[in-house]
Structure formats: C-alpha cells, structure tokens
C-alpha cells in the first residue's frame, strides 16, 4: 500500500478502527511510515479497537467489584482481578496496566503518583528517568529494588502525564489499599504530593510537609514518610533538595532498623 491510502490506514488505526482496511498480504514489506513495535501490544490494548463491544458494569474484569478486590488473597490474585480494569477513563487510554512490583513481603513500600510513558509501554513502575533516580535512592539506603515494593496511586497513565484527578485516584485507591493490606509494609515512603493527598487526605504542600512522619490508618497504623517525587528532584537538582530527600530516606531506614517490631523480630530469631 502506498501514497494516500496508507495515510488513511494509519489514521484509521490511530482512531482504533483497525481491521476496516485489509492487512497487507503475507510477506509484503511493511508500509512506509509504519513501525515494527519493539514491544508487542498487550492483549488488553486490543480491546481499545472500537469494533469490540464496550464492557458492561457487570463485566468482572473491566469493573472489578469491591468484594472481589477485597477477597484477593495474594498480589497475584489481585493483579489478575484488576488488570483489565476500565472503571475510570484512564483505563481506555492505557497501553499497559502498571500494577506495581517488588517483594510481596517488603518492609518498605514506595508510592508514586501514576505511570508515565515509559511505564505505560513496559507495564512496570518507575522505569524512566525518575525510576533511575528512585533506584539510586533505594540503593543509597541499602536495599535492592526487588526487596522493596513500588506502587502508584493510579495504575494507568494519565494523558500527557497530568496529575490524576481526585475521581481517578479515588477509583483506583481500593487497589492500592489492598496491595498495602497484602504486603503489610512497616514503613511507606510517599513520593510527591499526590499519594499523600489521595491516600492520607493530607492537603499540605509537599515542600512544607516532607520529612514529617505521617500515619496511615490501616493495619493498626503505618508510619509514612513523605518526600519529594524523584521527577521533582531531577528538575530541581540542588543540594538542598537532594539533602532533604536523603534525610527523609535515612529516617525511614532508621525506623526500620530501630522500631520495636524490628527488635522483636531479631530477638525471636
Ligand atoms: N512517576 C510516578 O509517579 N510513577 C511512576 O511509575 C513513574 C513516574
């Protein structure tokens, strides 16, 4: 296919109207302007094509009911139950659902805002530039990425990386809360203002509140250390900002090393 016809096909594909134009014959070279995607689209991305019927609220994958979410007994169960979610408008725009990753027994959990472009493409949290910095932050306090758990308030990428709306965040929050219940972290580090506002209801600006312990009223109370989002640190790469984040991370590490539960665990070993 060449000339205006392939432009038409590309435009139709962009609109999700794939399949109206017959695919090229087997063995035919790819049309000019089309790229061979390095990462194959996940199965759920196919459902964005408008030829497929829209899910109904009774579709358990698209709108996982609260009781199913609450009944998920493992992170794997939970992921299976929610990864087809279309309960808010972000679901229809995602390439991949970004569940979060790390140890299911993590003592330390990091919570960011929501996936960006790289995360949407790979289906993993914090894999772009901000993720590289987060990896360094994690290593700086003596952990490997696989030993902590990294999650987000929303699991699907907001368009143009905007802040998720309160409605989108609240729609996704039961998933994050179930993750916390299953992991039972001893400390949570929130990254930026969004997780603090949406999970704890704290409206104070992050510059004022970072470094001050908060408490999440779940599982008898979980200490929460608010710090700057790594993307902010990259934008404001000053000694002051970096030192602030370092102090916040050290406080979290110290709590893990010195809090009563740590002493009890080591005494019983
Ligand atoms: N920013 C976030 O808040 N979360 C990610 O997963 C990536 C970037």
Characterization of this structure:
This protein is of the alpha/beta class and 269 residues long. The protein has a domain at 103-255: Uracil-DNA Glycosylase, subunit E. Helices cover 43% and strands 9% of the residues. A six-stranded mixed sheet has the order 1-3-2-4-6-5, with helices on both faces. The longest helix has 20 residues, at 239-258. Residues 112-116, 119, 125-126, 130, 152, 231 line the site of uracil (URA). The site of uracil has 11 residues, from loops.
Order of helices and strands: HHHHHEEHHEHEHHEEHHH
Shape verdict: globular
Strand order of the largest sheet: 1-3-2-4-6-5
What profile does the largest beta sheet have?
6 strands, mixed
Oligomer: single chain
Helical content stands at 40-55%
| CATH superfamily annotation of one domain | Uracil-DNA glycosylase-like domain
Label the CATH architecture of one domain: 3-Layer(aba) Sandwich
CATH topology of one domain: Uracil-DNA Glycosylase, subunit E
Low-confidence stretches: 1-41, 43-52, 264-269
Tell me the name of the CATH class of one domain. Alpha Beta
- What is the structural class? alpha/beta
Percentage of residues in strands? 5-15%
Number of strands: 6
The overall average pLDDT, rounded, is 84
Tags for this model:
six-stranded mixed beta sheet, alpha/beta, globular, 13 helices, single chain, 6 strands, about 45% helix, binds uracil, about 270 residues, Uracil-DNA Glycosylase, subunit E
